[in-house]
Amino acid sequence: MLGVMRKYKQSIVIKVVFVVIVLSFIGTIFLVWGKGGSDGRGGKSYAATVNGTKISLDEFQKSYYRTRGLYEQIYGRSLTPELEKQMGIKKLTIDTLIDNVLILDEAKKMGVKVNKDQVAAEIAKIPAFQKNGAFDFGVYQQTLKVNRITPKDFEESQEQEMVLQKTRNKIKESATVTDAEVKEAFKKQNDKVNLAYVSFSPADVKGSVKLTDQELTSYLQEHQNDFKTPEQVSVAYTVVNPAQAAAKVSVTADEVQTYYQKNIDRYQGKGGILPFAEVKDKATADAQKQKAAKEAYEKAAEAVNKFKANGDLDGAAAALGGKVEKTALFTAKAPAAALAGENEVVARAFALKQGELGGPVETAKGIYLVKVLDKKPAAVPPLAQIKGAVEAKAVEVKAADLAKKKAEEALQQLSKGGAAKETGSFGFAPTGVVPAIGTSPELMEAAFTLNAPNQAAKQPFKVGERWYAVALKSRTEAPLTELAKDSGSIKAALLPKKQQEALDKWVKGLREKAKIDINPMVLQD
């Protein structure tokens, strides 16, 4: 039935239910203090400890998978390992669990509680548990059952989530926006500034960069991975095509019927699952293909076991009725043409030792047996062979550093009124687009902190490939006559950020005072 579920995975109902469940569960349902147990490998038996409270490995794993699942729902696709690593989902998960332990502990000290009636009322608001706009206990039970969650666990998770949110809100309520902050925001929104600036790019200073052989040698030693020739292998292989033997394989009526039942989702028509009688011929052919593939794989495995000790690929190929093909040396990123697209075969080739016979490896094209003929490890060529490439890279890095350094020196000159170009007068833009310079939200923010003529920014800013040193040429201040009228809306706009900052600062303080031990294993890729 997995195929049926995959077919209907885009159902909006399923998505809504899934997101509701995940949002309620991340970092709460598995907060069962003190649980743990051995990790089976003699390592730490917990994901983390927080002031002596254990967060179990099981708790972390379940929260991690739910967090990842939520992001996959949001993005509408599976996350690649690279994207997942870039997003830091494992760290996000363990940090959330740790923060929740700390907040719940503080909630007890602060006397923050919710009662059963409040929990029930909150659950009744969840659309996934409603029918015709009202909470339905039968829908509630069925939804939880489908997601393998007991009402007790879900209600406890909701209670904890409500306590967490209530505690967070209590901290946020302490945040205030001062009149000075309102005035500063008003001025930022209404004043206009004109900046003086000078800029430097690596291309501007590249010609002045000269490097000695000693500097190039040092650069090569520090950046060896940038210049390594990749590992190479050449292989011999044979491939068996199970489809060629399918016609010779016979299947019984029971085998066909069993295959149909196990793969019933493959036989769907417009009205749903097609009866066995209508797809009997197709099911028979499919069952033959599967049986042929299984038998071919087993024969290939037997051949490997028989001839592996001597690395005798010729003997294995003969036993399977195949022929042996050979490749020239190739790299993992640029495999031999005959193996293009056969990623599993290529990966197996690089995992084998020279002269070793490996397999079977099953792909869409067939079942492969592979033997490594030659293997050349990755290596860094002598400087003399790659001096041009090393010099080009080293000069590029040196020029980038020099451009930044010149921009830093230029700040001093601008503060004294040194010669510079001007941006012209402009107002604050949330997009960060600075006239004559480009897009830099950081530079935009810094520009409106400058008040005195020739006041320079604290550091240069990189926009594109150029480094910019900026100073205030002039500032046109807007009249404050409208400040009183706008202060309410400005304060309302600033408050959410101040509240979040207050919460972040509070949680950071809790973490700084807490004794936290994170098991490194939970952050491994």
From TrEMBL:
This protein is called what? SurA N-terminal domain-containing protein
List where this protein forms a coiled coil. Answer: 280-310
- Domain PpiC: from-to ranges: 251-387
User: In the UniProt record, does the keyword Zinc-finger occur?
Assistant: no
Per the UniProt record, the lineage of the source organism begins with: Bacteria, Pseudomonadati, Thermodesulfobacteriota, Desulfuromonadia, Geobacterales
The superkingdom of the source organism is Bacteria
Q: So where does this one cross the membrane?
A: 12-33
Entry keyword set: Cell membrane, Chaperone, Coiled coil, Membrane, Transmembrane, Transmembrane helix
Q: Which organism is it from?
A: Geomonas diazotrophica
Cellular location of this protein? Cell membrane
